[in-house]
Design brief:
488 residues
Length: 488
């Protein structure tokens, strides 16, 4: 396969410049996603708030800084300049760090789970995994999902697009309504799908570049199944292949742990994670472990305590002492085994924080109303830190080792398989109006897709008309091959 690059391509946005730098990778299975590392490599994100990330990068001596970081947005408050909850908690523009005129807002949001400011996160990390909360309640507004579907919140979605347009060199992994099947979110399945699709549609219309990746994240939680009284069909929440670039899962419990209270025994953490991975494989989507933390463990005190009265007993009771080695072997080694054994897992988002110091997760919130979480900071203990470094550097786990921002961006592939087009010459590529296909017959037929899988054109012959398309990368597919073309 041959590409001809015009000199003016140097003026393309960072996403288009990916094509000048990335390699073609070939695998035994097909992934049709966006912005994941090739060669089965993995990305590392650290979170889940500004202080936790800063403390990790400052104090975890010798640790990989992470290719990106985790952030959160409160959708329904994105246009609210200030919401006062109590002396310790307040929200500014939903945690976005941008006012309604597109200017930076330096006020940091804290709704009780650490300080947040998406603008700050985007300035210091090339990749940002964003948990977008669309939970509807008395505070956020009842029937919020239906209002999203009806277009009553479109201005908030447009504001998100305005923000993403401010950072064309970043890539944002947007987890819309993360943990969609979590009992604690109480999403109506049909309304969730409609709201998810509406957010994606409005964003796509208003983005000036394609730097947002849409992540569909399951809770993969045995506790959810206990609360529900059974295991849900995650497919009932699926927005469709055109709307999902990645699939995500949560990993907090031990992989094969069973509850010790109650009579119902749900599927284990590992079984639920495997279910999500299998579903992702059936759809050809890369997988992100979107939230991971050793729930119930305190890495500083070296203890493991009960999480919840619905699972193992009264929260923060029944504690047992552990050595650093025991903690790492019990939880971390099992997590990395899962990463290592699943090539489709292309990202790990680790929550590295002292959960017990934040209001929502602490005893101050109605005696651990959200369960006991503990302290997950790997830098707090030298042995755990050294084991963490070894796991990230272990070639078997295959984490991308670079920490250089431009290199991180440039190795992110669009699609995992490009079939060579021997004898076909594509030019000019990038192109503005017409891209020629030299070496094909007059009855050659093709389809043109976005990188997220939406069909945008079809044709017959040796010329591809891209004049009506937005700037970006497209996939030209025909029987026997796939190739990338770039609209300038």
């Amino acid at each position: 396969m041959m590409f001809s690059y015009a000199a003016e391509s140097r003026d393309l946005t960072i996403k288009n410049n990916l094509m000048l730098l990335i390699s073609l990778f070939f695998y035994s299975h097909f992934i049709n996603g966006q912005f994941y590392p090739g060669n089965d490599q993995k990305l590392l994100f650290v979170g889940q708030d500004l202080a936790s990330v800063s403390n990790y990068r400052t104090n975890c001596t010798g640790c990989h800084n992470g290719h990106g970081e985790i952030a959160y947005l409160s959708f329904y408050t994105l246009e609210e300049s200030s919401i006062f909850i109590d002396v310790n908690r307040s929200i500014y523009y939903g945690g976005m760090g941008m006012d309604n005129n597109g200017n930076r807002d330096t006020n940091n949001t804290n709704w009780g789970a650490g300080i947040l400011n998406l603008w700050t996160a985007a300035e210091r990390s090339p990749l940002v995994a964003i948990g977008l909360s669309i939970v509807e309640d008395a505070f956020n507004g009842l029937d919020g999902l239906q209002n999203i579907i009806d277009g009553n919140h479109d201005s908030k979605i447009v504001k998100m697009a305005t923000f993403f347009n401010q950072f064309p060199s970043n890539i944002f992994y947007l987890r819309i309504g993360y943990e969609f099947d979590g009992n604690w979110n109480a999403y109506d399945q049909t309304k969730y799908i409609g709201a998810y699709q509406r957010i994606v549609d409005v964003l796509r219309t208003n983005l000036s570049q394609d730097n947002v990746v849409y992540v569909w994240q399951s809770s993969t939680s045995p506790i959810d199944d206990i609360l529900d009284g059974g295991q849900e069909n995650i497919n009932a929440y699926y927005p469709g292949d055109d709307y999902v670039d990645w699939m995500g899962l949560s990993w907090f419990l031990l992989p094969n742990e069973n509850p010790t209270v109650g009579s119902f025994t749900p599927a284990t953490q590992l079984a639920l994670a495997n279910e999500l991975v299998s579903f992702a494989q059936s759809k050809g989507k890369p997988v992100m472990i979107a939230e991971a933390s050793p729930q119930g463990y305190d890495l500083d005190a070296k203890t493991n305590c009960n999480i919840s009265p619905v699972y193992d007993g009264t929260a923060n009771q029944g504690c047992t002492n552990k050595t650093a080695t025991q903690i790492y072997q019990e939880w971390f080694d099992e997590l990395f085994n899962f990463v290592k054994n699943n090539d489709d897992v292309r990202a790990l988002c680790y929550i590295n924080t002292d959960w017990d110091s934040e209001f929502i997760w602490s005893a101050a919130n109605n005696n651990y109303a959200s369960g006991y979480w503990g302290d997950s900071r790997v830098e707090i203990d030298a042995d755990i830190r050294n084991s963490w470094i070894a796991s990230i550097e272990d070639p078997a786990n295959n984490f991308l080792q670079t920490e250089d921002s431009s290199t991180i961006i440039n190795v992110l592939s669009i699609e995992d398989i490009i079939v060579p087009t021997q004898g076909v010459f594509v030019y000019p590529n990038p192109g503005i109006d017409i891209i020629n296909l030299q070496g094909v017959s007059s009855d050659f037929s093709y389809d043109l897709y976005t990188t997220s899988g939406r069909k945008v054109a079809e044709g017959v012959g040796d010329k591809v008309d891209v004049s009506h398309l937005s700037r970006g990368i497209y996939l030209l597919k025909s029987e026997g091959f796939i190739t990338r073309i770039i609209k300038q």
